[in-house]
Amino acid sequence: MELSKELLLKFYKDMVRIRNFELKAEELFLQGKLPGFIHLYIGEEAIAVGAMANLRVEDYITSTHRGHGHMLAKGASMRKMMAELYGKKHGYCKGKGGSMHIADVSIGVLGANGEVGGGLPIAVGAGMAIKLQKKDSVVISFFGDGASNRGAFHEALNWASVFKLPVIFLNENNQFASTERVQETTSVENISDRAVGYNMPGVSIDGNDVIAVFETVKEAVERARNGGGPTLIEAKTYRLKGHFVGDPQLYRTKEEVDLKWPNEPISRFEKKLFEGGYLTEKEKEEIWNDAKNEVEDAVLFAEQDEYPAPEEALEDLFEDSTNCLY
Amino acid sequence: MREITFSEALGEAILEEMSRDPTIFTYGEDIAKQGGIFGAYKPILGKYQDRIIDTPISEEVIFGSALGAALAGMRPVAEFHFADFLFTGMAAIANQIMKFKYMTGGQGKLHLILRGPDGISKSAAAQHSESIETIFMHIPGIKVIIPSTPYDMKGLFKTALRSDDPVICFEHKMLYRMKGPVPEEEYYIPFGVADVKREGKDVTVIATSRMVHESLLAAQELEKEGVSVEVVDLRTLVPWDKETVFKSVKKTHKVVIAHETWRRAGWGAEIAATIQEELFDYLDAPIRRVGAKNVHIPFSPPLQDFVVPDKNSVIEAVRSVL
Prior knowledge:
The complex is a heterodimer. Chain A is an alpha/beta fold. Chain A is 42% helix and 10% strand. Chain A has a single domain (5-307), classed as Thiamin diphosphate (ThDP)-binding fold, Pyr/PP domains (Rossmann fold), CATH 3.40.50.970.
């Protein structure tokens, strides 16, 4: 498939935006400016970007606790994301959710999720709604290798297959479930092999190749939009950073991680763009500068934003909370 | 007024609202062809077949998909088959449905209902018999309705089907066949409004579900002894009607709380503590609680009868506060 220069550069820009957001989040966390936990997506950007390029605004995704990349690729506001990381009033969740619970229902992001595999049943529900409404929207449910060992995974894939729902199960196999290696916790070499048990197509791809992700997801999305039902895609990647910022990473060596860096998706793709004449050094510099400026703008927004008033903790439980708080 | 069963009242509520609102759909195990394990869905058999769906036995998706479907614009009604099986899908309920709106800063309208049978039936034993409504009152994030009559069932469920918040409805297995007056004309019962099922002046009994009927039987017997019992049916636990409860306590000065769920840390403890905190000066006796003994519901009939409260448990508690 011949992809336009415009699309290729969009892939690159989107990945660079995510990388810069994550690098800044890491820096801010280490400076003690962000409360809670931060789970970085560094090294996995090609999956969010390649997949999301196939979606429309009215399509849905469910995300994970490593969800910043998904959010940005689906079109979320970087300012509101950063403000949420700070726990500020104009963050996506008004300071009630933090990094792990960001959602933007208005653009179809049905939530990051602090529970491993928690988004899979939600994605199935959105798929049921689409089918009942006779629309041609789709859902992509992102989940990690650890989630594929949960009951929710089995229930969701079986259900989606039985009802032929327009759901793409997009596994991001980054080789680690928290601190556990996938080989030590998972019974199959390829998570996509599990698709056989649910009578749906299953495929494993190089998750660090943005074009491979784009093209594989494209096929699955087309099938889903045309009533062909769900697909399981395993995008193999590598988590270059710890489970969370500050993870001592006792389960692997620095040498192992260093060996993986040359395969990270952005520099790999960049090389291709240079070779194909799609990108110049000057354009590259501009793209990185733009991303840095966007992140700085988001940080400024977040730092200037106020904290929510303590009593705002009692809002947002229900549409109508009358007499529900005692 | 005509009399219909609790099941029929539920069926009418769903059918009336489904005809009005094309986004309502209902699904669960054994409902579309079987009508539900206790026949709760018999009145809707064969109707709206595209929106009444039999599903796999997959509790986490039965509940979790309700959240996704609601966010995507539908109004799902998921059946939980037996209240005990709520535990099987509890991750989807407690970690997703009940938290979603709050932890996303108020996003989405979560118009979804979880409903199904709870409570004891005859020797169904521990995994098909328990009353677990208290847990859903304890964790924030879902409205809890627990009707005791066909009238309340229909009126509360119609309100639930128009609510933009998640609702869980507990229907007692022993009540499905109970008949009662239900008007032909449309009506809705708001949440958080208790119903005084019987007026009295000596003792207030606060109850829900099957224990409302046991309490009414107890009141009849106590009346022969000259004791006047007021029976307040809360009807909803989240929100619960503090105003009606307080009004009754201020009148009788004595309180018994009767539920089928375990006595230890059951919802009665919350109501009792609230009355004690806010109305201490009005109380003429310690508040007594009636609930199941703190074991699981056993199989053998004499064991079950010993563990689960009935009208005699209420009579004994009322006598103890006189």
